[in-house]
């Protein structure tokens, strides 16, 4: 029996990644649209590669979360968000609306917590499989056998990879349930989670492989220093590491708590009445693509959906000599006005002229 496939979007992580990957992407008037283009392109890749039955978007909200209340320096190392990025975060909702994709957010919680809560609800149905589309390692902790996988970008925004339990173990040396212990020990500079000062990623990995989660590490440590040093499978446990663990137990447990994604956010979640493709209106997606001047995306979307395009290309052979001279001038004008279009086509001229 074919399983119902649901894709959950970590909207903020995708938007941030696209914003930094496409800093020079802009409309002809100079309005930055790199984040919006990245989100749109990611959506089309998801539709093409995963062929989901449903797509759901989750968002952060600007106000502090329960983690900020527990630790005032949470994410304290991050610089203030660019106004251009804020604007694109707001406008990205227009894209999801055009795609008829439901949006979930909740004051006091991060998008990750909503992803975790929805994935937890979906896991209860054995006939569903969930993919979380994200650019953030935090969501790896949500991977669960074949029920929940992560679909993410590689270094570029054009290549994607799917992480399941096997590939996470290959990458880190331990399974997804230990990601929060890894952060509890080594910390996470991107979120300003402290961990234990002096314990880096290599030592954290070594401790988890040898002893298990943080609670199990400290249970073993209670049996004595010599026992702890001798009873491990690999790596070297030094007196310095033991000292750091003893002094940093409270910080490790607190950091683990900060890194743990909630799976019980009080939200009312239900799948849309219509499956994704049944609820999609191409006139709306076409309208939003025209607004942001994403010239090629409408056709790419139709191909991803398996719809044959019947668009007739204008050929230069249809033009006389005086037309060709004017076309060359217009091509030069387009390339000067928008450096992102290196070799303008006739379609580019028509799109530029709206």
If you had to describe this structure to a student in words, what would you say it looks like?
The chain is of the alpha/beta class. The protein has three domains: 4-167 and 262-277, Rossmann fold (3-Layer(aba) Sandwich), CATH 3.40.50.1010; 178-259, DNA polymerase, domain 1; 313-354, no CATH class. 47% of the residues lie in helices and 9% in strands. The chain is built from 16 helices and six strands. It has helices at 11-21, 34-50, 66-70, 83-98, 111-123, 165-172, 179-186, 201-211, 214-221, 225-230, 239-247, 249-259, 282-291, 297-304, 321-337, 346-352, and strands at 4-10, 54-58, 103-104, 128-134, 148-153, 160-163. The chain has a six-stranded mixed β-sheet. A hairpin with a 6-residue loop joins β5 (148-153) and β6 (160-163). α7 packs across α12 and α15 (321-337) crosses α16. It is elongated and about 90 Å long. The model has no long low-confidence stretch (mean pLDDT 89).
Spatial gap, N to C terminus: 47 Å
Which structural class do you get from the secondary structure elements? Answer: alpha/beta
The biggest sheet, with number of strands, parallel, antiparallel or mixed sense and barrel status, is: 6 strands, mixed
CATH evolutionary superfamily of the largest domain: 5'-nuclease
The tally of domains stands at: 3
The H/E string reads EHHEHHEHEEEHHHHHHHHHHH
Strand line-up of the largest beta sheet: 3-2-1-4-5-6
Number of strands: 6
Radius of gyration (CA) equals 24 Å
Q: Beta-strand level of the residues, as a percent range?
A: 5-15%
Low-confidence stretches: none
What is the CATH top level name of the largest domain?
Answer: Alpha Beta
Fill in the CATH topology of the largest domain: Rossmann fold
Q: Which word captures the global form?
A: elongated
CATH architecture call of the largest domain: 3-Layer(aba) Sandwich
Average residue pLDDT: 89
How many helices? The count is 16
Portion in helices: 40-55%
């Amino acid at each position: 029996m074919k399983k119902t496939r649901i894709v959950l979007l970590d909207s903020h992580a995708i938007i941030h990644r696209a914003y930094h990957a496409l800093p020079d992407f802009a409309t002809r008037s100079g309005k930055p649209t790199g984040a919006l283009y990245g989100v749109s392109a990611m959506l089309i890749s998801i539709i093409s590669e995963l062929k989901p039955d449903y797509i759901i978007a989750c968002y952060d909200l600007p106000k502090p979360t329960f983690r900020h209340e527990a630790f005032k320096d949470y994410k304290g190392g991050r610089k203030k968000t660019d106004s251009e990025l804020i604007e694109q975060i707001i406008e990205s909702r227009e894209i999801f609306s055009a795609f008829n994709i439901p949006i979930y957010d909740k004051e006091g919680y991060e998008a990750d917590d909503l992803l975790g809560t929805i994935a937890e609800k979906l896991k209860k149905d054995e006939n569903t499989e969930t993919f979380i589309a994200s650019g953030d390692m935090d969501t790896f902790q949500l991977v669960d056998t074949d029920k929940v996988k992560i679909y993410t970008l590689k270094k570029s925004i054009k290549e994607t990879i799917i992480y399941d339990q096997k590939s996470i173990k290959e990458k880190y040396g331990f399974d997804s349930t230990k990601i929060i212990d890894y952060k509890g020990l080594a910390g996470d500079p991107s979120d300003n989670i402290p961990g234990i000062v002096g314990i880096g990623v290599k030592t954290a990995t070594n401790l988890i492989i040898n002893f298990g989660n943080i609670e199990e590490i400290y249970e073993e440590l209670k049996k004595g220093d010599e026992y702890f040093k001798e009873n491990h499978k690999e790596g070297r446990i030094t007196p310095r590491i033991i000292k750091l663990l003893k002094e940093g137990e409270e910080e490790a447990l607190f950091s683990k708590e900060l890194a743990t994604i909630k799976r019980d956010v009080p939200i009312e979640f239900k799948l849309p009445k219509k499956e994704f493709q049944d609820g999609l209106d191409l006139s709306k997606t076409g309208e939003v693509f025209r607004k942001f001047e994403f010239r090629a995306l409408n056709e790419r979307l139709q191909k991803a959906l398996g719809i044959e395009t019947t668009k007739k290309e204008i050929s230069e052979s249809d033009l006389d000599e005086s037309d060709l001279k004017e076309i060359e001038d217009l091509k030069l004008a387009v390339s000067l006005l928008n450096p992102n279009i290196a070799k303008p086509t006739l379609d580019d001229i028509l799109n530029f002229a709206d």
